[in-house]
Write a structure and sequence with these properties.
By secondary structure, the protein is an alpha/beta fold. It has 10 helices and 5 strands; from the N terminus they run E-H-E-H-H-H-E-H-E-H-H-H-E-H-H. It starts with 9 loop residues before the first strand and ends with a helix. The site of adenosine-5'-diphosphate (ADP) has 18 residues, from helix 1, helix 2 and helix 3.
Length: 211
């Protein structure tokens, strides 16, 4: 997406957290509020036809609990977000972008820097891995998530999160990071996220607009 100048970077909120921390749940609810557009990288991957090379790559890496390589991931993200802009699903002039599952390491954060203006990073924190694993096993049954069904894969996904994704918090260090206790009920987590959004000047400006 090199045709988008840096001045037109998408106003973005990141939802960051270990697998099972509730990123998707919060992203979906936020995305249902007018002027918030939710994009979950995992959903984009899961929507790929598994007969395609990219679809097969996704299955290969995710079934081991590993990240799909950065170059294909960022390319796929660029293409997907462009589609959403072109079809007016996502209107960058008036919508905030809510990203969940991307960037998932510092390299991806660097690649995305020219395209996103990160306003806040909502870190859904839950040190209790037993609770997260319980949520994942529940999801495996409900949503048919093959990467949540196997104990070794679950543990590997936690390890990948610690080693590759958590350093993103240092990359965006400062008052952009909002730590939220992810073991709270979903409604309270949402309340904390919205409280963080509403402290922003960008939000206050948006509030004044009649759209
Ligand atoms: P969760 O919500 O449980 O953290 P996701 O649905 O976001 O899981 O992702 C499922 C899998 O898809 C990941 O384990 C990984 O293999 C792949 N994936 C998703 N997003 C990315 C990304 N940004 N970079 C690389 N791989 C990704």
């Amino acid at each position: 997406m090199p045709d988008i100048p840096p001045s037109a970077r998408f106003r973005t909120f990141l939802i960051l957290g270990a697998p099972g921390s509730g990123k998707g749940t919060q992203g979906k609810v936020l995305g249902s509020i007018p002027r918030f557009h939710h994009l979950a990288c995992g959903d984009v991957f899961r929507s790929l036809d598994t007969r395609t090379l990219l679809g097969q790559k996704f299955v290969e890496y995710s079934s081991r609990g590993e990240l799909v390589p950065d170059d294909v991931t960022v390319q796929l993200w660029n293409a997907n977000v462009k589609q959403r802009v072109d079809s007016h699903m996502f209107k960058p002039e008036i919508d905030f972008l809510v990203l969940d599952g991307i960037p998932r390491n510092v390299e991806q954060a660097r690649f995305m820097e020219p395209h996103i203006e990160v306003l806040k990073v909502f870190h859904l924190s839950c040190p209790d891995r037993t609770e997260l694993a319980r949520r994942l096993r529940k999801r495996a049954l409900k949503d048919n998530r093959f990467d949540d069904a196997n104990e070794t894969v679950i543990q590997n996904r936690f390890a990948t999160y610690e080693a590759e994704t958590k350093p993103i918090l240092d990359y965006y260090a400062g008052d952009r990071i909002v730590d939220i206790d992810a073991s709270q009920p979903p409604a309270k987590v949402l309340y904390d996220i919205l409280a963080g959004v509403m402290t922003l000047d960008a939000w206050k400006e948006q509030e004044k607009m009649k759209i």
